[in-house]
Amino acid sequence: MQYRLLFTQGRAPLSLAMLLSLSMVSLDVLLINTAMPSLLKDLGGLPFYSWTLGAYSLGNFAMLPIFSVLVSKWGGRISLSIASVFFALGALIGTQSPSMEWIFVARLLMGFGGGGFLAIPFGLINRHFSHQLKPIAIGALSSVWALAALGGPALGGLILEKLGWRWIFGLHLPLTLGLWLLSLIALKKEGPPESPQSKVNYLSSLIFASLSALLLYFFDTDHIAWPAFLAFPLLLVFFYFWEKNHTNPVLPIKYWKQSKHLRKVFLAMALSALAFGGAEGYLPLSLQGIWGYSPLEAGLILTTGSLSWSSTALLLPKFYGNRLRSPSQWGTLCLLVSMLLLILVHHLDLSGWSVYLSFLLSGLGMGLIVPTYNTLALDESSQENESAKGSMLLAMTWGFSLGPPLVGLAAQIGFGQSFQAQDLNTGSLSNQALQALSQGLQFALMVSTVLLLLSLALIWTLPKNRQASTH
């Protein structure tokens, strides 16, 4: 097996550290999504639910471009240590959180660390692995998502049923400590940093995260304070000109001007992530609150979508080759059918196989969309391939962070005053609360459907096939 090469000639500790780093991110998302209805039941704070869902991705979004540079500027050992401190601190706060507001703080800090756990392994591959081993290492990292999908949601459901949601945060503490110790061993003889003179674009990351936070605020409030309303356009203009002149931009704006399709792909990715991230954030509430699934059963259903995503992404090159538009179209259509099926499930009071099918289709759709957009982004960028690929990751992370509050705005309208978080504590919802919960989730799914239709319109303008490489 070619993957054995990653564990020969002293590479085993480094390979294990990279795999564990990415595992922390993939497991965390699956575990916490399964646990969110239990948090809401114990802590209340329904108006803050969407903020909490988006906090982790917002933290990822803010720190991912920073850690991408820090791993070259300061080295992997220091960068992983910083990321581990953020992640562990957030997990510790999560175990003791008395309210949903504190859960938001915990998830934001964990998102800061998770941004490092996402970015650092790829920087380590670039520095410590040969040209022949790089694709093998990247393939191994991709498999982590499939393994996490296999056991993550079910593990989360089991912990919830036997121990409680605080233990999910507690589980991260020994894992983070293990990762930090492993990185110290693996990178003991790391040598001097690869690019100590690299400029970290802290300001762009901070401004873009602030703009995203303001959007979260706009989506989640009935009354917008005028300072926030005034700050948004000013920050947006400043961000544009700062990015335009910086040597290390967070978003490849100048390449968008040179590329024929890169801007469209970025927007299509963001729209798909908004729709998928927003719907996925509220679906566990639907599974446990409306259809009465236990946390373990809900975790198994989420596993269906995660496995479908991972397996489709692995098989995509075999079946689609150089085609681009058709997998994007089919992927978006799968997501649309998934959303429409879930709306019908609410209307017709269906469950069982139809719920599993909808999650299977949503995973299939994302498995077709994400690698296709990444491939087109790489092809369209003639000089900064990593920047182009990074922009797709940023678009997806941005969509996942803003999707829950955007979709949640529609859900809150549907909930009205008839459903509150404390209703979940009654054991069984009243008919009025059940109807309000169902209506809110249907409104959320309708918003996701509209976003996917916009994405589908953009896809029709993309090329049918990959262009011949010129670099």
3D structure, described in words:
- Helix content is 78%, strand content 0%.
- It is globular, with a radius of gyration of 21 Å.
- By secondary structure, the protein is mainly alpha-helical.
- It contains 15 helices and no strands.
- The chain has three domains: 1-201, Growth Hormone, Chain: A (Up-down Bundle), CATH 1.20.1250.20; 202-245; 250-471, Growth Hormone, Chain: A, CATH 1.20.1250.20.
- The chain starts with 11 loop residues before the first helix and ends in a 12-residue tail after the last helix.
- The chain has helices spanning 12-43, 49-73, 76-96, 100-128, 134-162, 166-186, 202-219, 226-245, 253-258, 262-289, 295-320, 325-348, 353-380, 385-415, 431-459.
- Mean pLDDT is 76; it is low at 382-386.
Q: What is the element layout, followed by pairings?
A:
Layout: H1 12-43, H2 49-73, H3 76-96, H4 100-128, H5 134-162, H6 166-186, H7 202-219, H8 226-245, H9 253-258, H10 262-289, H11 295-320, H12 325-348, H13 353-380, H14 385-415, H15 431-459
